Amino acid sequence: GGWILKYLSAYVVSSGNEAAQDGYFTSFITAPVAPIVFMLIFLAFTAWVVYCGVEKGIERFSRIIMPGLLLLIIGISIFSLTLSHTDSDGTVRTGLQGLAIYLLPDFHGLTFGRFLNVLLDAMSQLFFSLSVSMGIMITYGSYVKDDVNLSQATNQIELFDTGVAFLSGMMIIPAVFAFSGGNPETLQAGPSLMFITLPKVFASMGFGTATGIVFFILVLLAALTSAVSLMETSVSTFMDELHWSRKKCCGLMVVIMIVLGTASSMGYGLLDFIRIFGMNFLDFFDFMTNSVMMPLAALATCILILRVVGIDGMEKEIEQSSPFRRKKLYRVFIKYFAPICLIIILLSSIANVLGIISM
User: CB neighbours of 305 closer than 8 A, spacing ≥ 6?
Assistant: First the structure.
């Protein structure tokens, strides 16, 4: 969140051309103070929304932000398809050509190891995309009234999650292809795609300042909705377990987040000398949450439903408000498919970090 705020400010205050310069991203994340300052600003806004509560804070925030976020994604996706760029040698590349790279599969050079790596990455991404194993679904579910149609809500989540994911790719990849030399390798850059490649793309557009502002506002809103959900989960847990007020629980979470956030922000700078399994703080936290804690929590949830709550109890809960048409499929997944996949994700991730296998 702090990184996104930094880049947004670069485009708002100036043209944003400096963000496209080589070394800009590295110099920022290794700076001693700047990453912490922007992290604290992001944290302050997140805490304010959660402090306002579910109805006055989170619901009001989401009702305004989420439709706006969706409209921005659709608008930029359509805009990306209209882009074209002519190289110095006269080669013309268009957003539609980039769309073809995005949609058409390329099996050249595909090995079993690469296939397994992509499959595991995709399953790990599902955790974040659907907010599974972070307590978010359980927290928000506790606020849902009994008469809400859960089957219909599930269908809406599937539709919008898949649709927004598809549009997000269509928003970025055609634009990067058109303005990055046409090299598909630039489309596989992970975090550097957002903070290194895209600013260069914006700078080459000629109207990149406006595009950069809109893009980083969009990403900031997406980050805020995620951060608010995660903080609300922790705050509501503290409220239930400690019987504290929302104000006091928010204060406790802010202290915890400042400590962990500061360590993450300084992980590439002043605290870079501290390594855990060869990783700095940010990479280690990312590994622990994504590759260890979330699969473990999901596996524990499967066991909880199977051994404690019972599948019949789950089905009865769902059928309070709507027919459960996926009952048989749910039983197969919760008993067999989900636990097996989770164990594979967990073991392969740990083995990869320890160097037992390489993917």
Answer: 311, 314, 334
Amino acid at 351: A
Rounded to the nearest angstrom, the gap between the alpha carbon of residue 160 and the centroid of all alpha carbons in its chain is 15
Ranges of beta strands (E only) in 8-141 are 84-86, 92-94
First to last CA, the chain: 29
Rounded mean pLDDT, 120-129: 77
Per DSSP bridges, beta strands 92-94 and 84-86 are antiparallel
DSSP 131-166: TTTSSHHHHHHHTS-TTS-HHHHHHHHHHHHHHHHH
- C-alpha distances in angstroms, 286 versus 55, 117, 124, 229? 31, 17, 12, 18
Backbone angles phi, psi at 267, to 5 degrees: -65, -30
Task: List CB contacts of 167: < 8 A, sequence separation 6 or more.
Answer: 73, 74, 77
Per-residue confidence (pLDDT) for residue 243, from 0 to 100: 92
Spatial distance between the Cα atoms of 246 and 225, rounded to a whole number of angstroms = 19
Name every residue whose Cβ is closer than 8 Å to that of residue 190 and which is 6 or more positions away in sequence. Answer: none
Question: Could you tell me the pTM of the whole model?
Answer: 0.80
Cβ(130)–Cβ(162) below 8 Å: no
Total length of the chain: 359
